[in-house]
């Protein structure tokens, strides 16, 4: 009788433990606020609409549980409305037929699906955020050429389509407003009719040329100008490669008096006003505003990699943006970050820096610096990390953050 009572108590304890585990598992699923969840009924339909990176998993799998927070972070920065990629999950304990069809033999299995394809490319790398984002970037890059959407309208009424063969000669003299684009880019498609209108309105102006270049077809030109997002609009005066300074630190700085990046509103009126402003600039006054440090190297946004990072942050305050080119939040921050760089232009004690975590030469660096989301903003003093910025990403707050750390150091 006593033995039966003891067995009954043990059984109850196991039941309570099982219920607790199930409740915790269920709670974890609720925390996947950004990750899409697919079943056999909607998998093929959804994968046909956009590029997808899918995790096939089992809730009881330890490796899956450890990956889950990183996968959710990946979903948070990727599953934006204007993004060309979707991050999703499939529970193989409830969708066994679908997982069998996708040749899933272990958990977690991660597969990338190009738009419209049901056969995925298996991910075999380490499961950290920088490596996963780099894999996505590589796959999107390969699909850009293979899955190019219909090209924008043919160049008419003053709009010139440039190529690798014609670009350098064309921009080597005169004033040029150039759109660097990709045909698959939604923002580029929205801008296309406005860009045509701008070219048409200036077609009789012999002083300025309005042009465009397809970066999926002419990557070498876009690489020279460090094009990281589309569309990028550059004002170029009398120049080509020599207007982009390439230092040993792998930094790229486009001189303000030769190449200027347009970051304003993309309406016809704003674009035309910008052209008028650039044509009306006094070259002598503009040149006098250019500041240089004692080495003659202009201070602005430094693009660093693992090879140059230690040297780049070893002196003074260094405010570093760790980012991914495809990240929507990073794209929105980019023009503000450029403005922040201009505010400290010529200040030898402050460096405004960016690091692309999707580059092979930077993935390990981003891991070592504990970058777990994009953008991540860290402040360093004389090579040592002193603070992470988590405030509002407007220009005034970012500027005040740096200045407050300068004052704190002065008081000490």
TrEMBL record:
Signal peptide positions (record): 1-28
PROSITE patterns cross-referenced by the UniProt entry: THIOREDOXIN_1, THIOREDOXIN_2
Gene: 105625688
Keywords carried by this UniProt record: Redox-active center, Repeat, Signal
NCBIfam families in the cross-refs: pdi_dom
Domain Thioredoxin per the UniProt entry, residue ranges: 25-141, 142-273, 277-407
InterPro entries from the UniProt entry: PDI, PDI_thioredoxin-like_dom, Thioredoxin-like_sf, Thioredoxin_CS, Thioredoxin_domain
Superkingdom assignment: Eukaryota
GO terms for biological process, alphabetical: protein folding
Family to which this protein belongs: Belongs to the protein disulfide isomerase family.
Gene Ontology molecular functions: protein disulfide isomerase activity
Name of the protein in its database record: Thioredoxin domain-containing protein
Any GO CC annotation of this UniProt entry: endoplasmic reticulum
Segments passing through the bilayer: none
């Amino acid at each position: 009788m006593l033995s039966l009572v003891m067995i009954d108590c043990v059984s109850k304890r196991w039941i309570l433990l099982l219920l607790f585990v199930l409740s915790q598992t269920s709670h974890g699923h609720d925390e996947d606020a950004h990750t899409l969840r697919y079943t056999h009924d909607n998998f093929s339909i959804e994968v046909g609409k956009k590029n997808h990176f899918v995790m096939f998993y089992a809730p009881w799998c330890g490796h899956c549980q450890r990956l889950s927070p990183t996968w959710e972070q990946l979903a948070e920065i990727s599953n934006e409305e204007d993004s060309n990629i979707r991050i999703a999950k499939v529970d193989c304990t409830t969708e066994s037929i679908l997982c069998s069809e996708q040749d899933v033999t272990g958990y977690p299995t991660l597969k990338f699906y190009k738009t419209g394809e049901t056969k995925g490319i298996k991910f075999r790398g380490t499961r950290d955020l920088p490596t996963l984002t780099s894999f996505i970037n590589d796959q999107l890059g390969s699909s850009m050429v293979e899955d190019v959407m219909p090209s924008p309208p043919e160049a008419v009424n003053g709009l010139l389509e440039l190529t690798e063969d014609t670009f350098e000669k064309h921009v080597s003299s005169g004033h040029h407003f150039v759109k660097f684009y990709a045909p698959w880019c939604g923002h580029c498609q929205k801008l296309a009719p406005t860009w045509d209108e701008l070219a048409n309105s200036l077609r009789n102006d012999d002083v300025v040329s309005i042009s465009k270049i397809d970066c999926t077809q002419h990557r070498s030109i876009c690489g020279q100008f460090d094009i990281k997002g589309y569309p990028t609009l550059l004002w170029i005066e009398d120049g080509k490669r020599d207007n982009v300074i390439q230092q040993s630190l792998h930094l790229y700085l486009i001189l303000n008096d030769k190449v200027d990046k347009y970051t304003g509103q993309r309406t016809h009126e704003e674009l035309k006003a910008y052209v008028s402003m650039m044509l009306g600039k006094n070259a002598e006054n503009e040149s006098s505003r250019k500041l240089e440090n004692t080495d003659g190297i202009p201070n602005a946004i430094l693009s660093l990699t693992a090879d140059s990072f230690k040297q780049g942050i070893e002196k003074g305050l260094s405010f570093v943006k760790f980012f991914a080119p495809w990240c929507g939040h990073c794209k929105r921050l980019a023009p503000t970050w450029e403005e922040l760089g201009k505010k400290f232009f010529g200040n030898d004690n402050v460096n405004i820096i960016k690091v692309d975590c999707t580059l092979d030469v930077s993935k390990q660096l981003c891991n070592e610096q504990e970058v777990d989301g994009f953008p991540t903003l860290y402040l360093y003093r004389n090579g040592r990390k002193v603070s992470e910025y988590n405030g509002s990403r407007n220009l005034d707050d970012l500027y005040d953050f740096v200045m407050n750390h300068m004052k704190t150091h002065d008081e000490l």
